[in-house]
Amino acid sequence: MGKKELNFGLIGTGFMGKTHVFGISAANRVFDLPYKLRLKKLADISEDLASKAALELGVGEYSGNWQELIQDESIDVINITSPNSFHKEMALAAIRAGKHVYCEKPLSISVQDAKEMSDASKSSRVMTQVGFNYICNPLLLKAQQIIRNGDLGEIRGFRGIHAEDYMASADSQFSWRHDPVGGGALADLGSHIIATAEFLIGPISEVLGNCVTSVHQRPNFSGEMENVFTDDVTRAFLKFENGASGSIEANWIAMGRKMQHDFEVFVSKGALFFSQERLNELLFYKNDDPEGEKGFKTIVSSPEHEPYGRFCVAPGHQLGFGDLKAIEVKGFVEAIAGIGAEPFNFEAGLRVQSLVDLIKKSSGETQWLTTETILR
Ligand code: NAD
């Protein structure tokens, strides 16, 4: 007998929508899952856009109205890859209809909205997932194990950055990413590095942030200039519950940086370094290496780093960005089947959202000291 089908309905067919299509399709083939996964229907803001996307992505059914996916009783899972401000309305409607929800990060535009979403999921029977795909990299799991197993002593420091340059040009168009409520580099990119920081080190307990807007006006789609109030760069100091300290930077005007989701972790007897631009390499320093041989060695991803071997039997042949999404899909589907915990549910998404909001809040409270006062 064949496997039972699990039908997905995708809302939004932009950058992330396409990544979800890949993730579902690859997970279906690469992993031995309890269901046969099928992307049944997609929706976008117009019939025209949806039909084009359906043709391009090989999806049989489409709609210009996302509510149709919610009403469709044959759909089991709703994937939300629309702009952040729509996440709450769509997710709550899906939960009410008894559908599992796989929502892109950040969970929503405010901690209040994220809490409503998390509460709704907790009082329902549906499974939820937030798209923090970078932590699905098997090498990050390896890093977490090295840091947390205690062999290298106490965890002391974390330095993380998520920097790209897609907003570096002042001509980059004003978009939903600049929405004064819930937009900005911190929500967009900082949420990722916050998730990674907690995944590796543990809960963050205190933050002190500084949000900076560098490009104050950008042209909208019709060429008129719009004022920008959201942050282009945010930096924050962090304190972790386990006593470690650290910092993060979220930056979308980092000219030259394409995917700098990087971190360094300092432990009392060693250190780790990772860069998403080289996502198949984890650099590992051990202080008890012999003198004259000390230095960072490179751990290259291989079948020993589960589930790399599902994609390729040979070491060093490399996973890609889309593969991380397939691993994310696998974890979520196993949770739906009841054979695993939800890897990063709405409650976890609420936690990241609360840290985003807290960093923003603390930014206004920072007191800067001018160099003039000390030199005078
Ligand atoms: P995008 O602008 O490329 O795509 C958004 C899509 O949603 C477009 O197709 C748009 O037409 C559609 N849309 C807008 N309003 C809609 C509505 N009311 N109903 C149906 N469709 C609607 O944006 P993107 O880069 O794909 O980002 C989408 C989401 O994914 C955001 O929440 C973003 O933060 C997240 N994202 C996550 C990652 C990641 O690595 N996990 C990377 C990029 C973006």
Describe the SSE topology.
Layout: E1 4-11, H1 15-30, E2 35-43, H2 47-57, E3 61-63, H3 67-71, E4 77-80, H4 87-96, E5 100-104, H5 111-122, E6 128-131, H6 138-148, E7 155-163, H7 185-201, E8 204-212, E9 217-219, E10 225-227, E11 233-240, E12 245-251, E13 260-267, E14 270-275, E15 281-286, E16 297-300, H8 308-311, H9 321-336, H10 346-364, H11 371-375
Parallel strand pairs: 1-2, 1-4, 2-3, 4-5, 5-6, 7-12
Antiparallel strand pairs: 7-13, 8-11, 9-10, 11-12, 13-14, 14-15, 15-16
Helix pairs in contact: 1-9, 4-5, 5-10, 7-10
The structure holds nicotinamide-adenine-dinucleotide.
Task: Walk me through the structure.
The chain is an alpha/beta fold and 376 residues long. It folds into two domains: 5-134, 3-Layer(aba) Sandwich (Rossmann fold); 135-317 and 351-365, 2-Layer Sandwich (Dihydrodipicolinate Reductase, domain 2). It is 34% helix and 26% strand. It has eleven helices and 16 strands. It has an eight-stranded mixed beta sheet with strand order 8-11-12-7-13-14-15-16. Strands 3-2-1-4-5-6 form a six-stranded parallel beta sheet, sandwiched between helices. It has a two-stranded antiparallel sheet with strand order 9-10. Helix 1 links the parallel strand 1 and strand 2. Helix 4 (87-96) runs parallel beside helix 5 and helix 7 packs across helix 10. It binds nicotinamide-adenine-dinucleotide. Nicotinamide-adenine-dinucleotide binds next to helix 1. Residues 11-17, 43-45, 49, 66, 81-84, 86, 104-105, 131, 133, 188 line the site of nicotinamide-adenine-dinucleotide.
